[in-house]
């Protein structure tokens, strides 16, 4: 695969009621020497997320009501495609994704269409336990076999895509719960996208309260396995195959 020229990179930051954290996260990304553009997709927030993000220097796309991460990312991909960006990368508004690792994740696109910033691969101390861990291990092993490469963190939202990846996402990017991670990754692999991962170190939330608890972890287990099985029934996208034939 020919290494891409990533002259224009768009950081897509879906945000729902992240007024306490999004401003600092935007400023940290803009302070990077690489000169990334930032699009904050305000996902129907009821707080001052949009105003804080705009004041910090981001371009803000307003959604009229809460669609979830999948819906917000779909809007971001359409924006990136229309403005002809070379690559996109999703960064959480809560500050858990360290902006210094954006370049590391983008480097993965030298040999792949989708690059995942993996939390359980050599760096950092990020851990999970209980049903959430069981689901992550099961999904990582299963999707690794599908992708033909070892993936340890298939639910990470810290992921980048090149032009082929963006085109595939535009053709098929689900808005259902967990669809933005499991479903989108499975369909991308089955459609011919090459996937890789690079180790990154997670940070704690810069503000706000984590939503995980034992009940939600158990629910996560069931929903994530359902999302995988549902993804296997979807038709692969034809966009990537068509682009390969043209190339």
TrEMBL record:
Pfam families: Glycos_transf_2. Residues 11-166 form the Glycosyltransferase 2-like domain. It comes from the Bacteria. Belongs to the glycosyltransferase 2 family. This is Glycosyltransferase involved in cell wall biosynthesis.
């Amino acid at each position: 695969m020919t290494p891409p020229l990533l002259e224009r990179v768009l950081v897509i930051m879906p945000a729902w009621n992240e007024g306490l954290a999004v401003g600092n996260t935007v400023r940290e990304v803009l302070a990077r020497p690489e000169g990334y553009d930032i699009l904050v997709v305000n996902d129907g927030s009821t707080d001052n997320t949009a105003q804080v993000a705009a004041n910090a220097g981001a371009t803000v796309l307003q959604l009229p009501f809460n669609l979830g991460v999948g819906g917000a990312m779909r809007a971001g991909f359409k924006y990136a495609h229309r403005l002809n960006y070379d690559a996109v990368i999703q960064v959480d508004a809560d500050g858990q994704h360290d902006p210094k690792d954006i370049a590391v994740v983008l480097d993965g696109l030298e040999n792949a269409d989708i690059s995942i910033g993996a939390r359980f691969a050599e760096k950092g101390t990020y851990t999970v336990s209980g049903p959430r861990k069981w689901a992550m291990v099961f999904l990582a092993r299963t999707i690794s076999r599908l992708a033909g490469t070892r993936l340890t963190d298939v639910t990470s939202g810290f992921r980048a895509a090149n032009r082929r990846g963006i085109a595939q996402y535009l053709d098929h990017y689900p808005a259902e719960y967990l669809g933005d991670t499991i479903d989108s990754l499975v369909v991308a692999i089955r459609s011919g996208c090459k996937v890789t991962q690079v180790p990154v170190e997670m940070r704690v939330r810069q503000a706000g309260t984590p939503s995980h608890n034992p009940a939600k972890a158990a629910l996560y287990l069931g929903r994530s396995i359902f999302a995988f099985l549902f993804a296997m029934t979807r038709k692969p996208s034809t966009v990537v195959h068509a682009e390969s034939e043209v190339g």
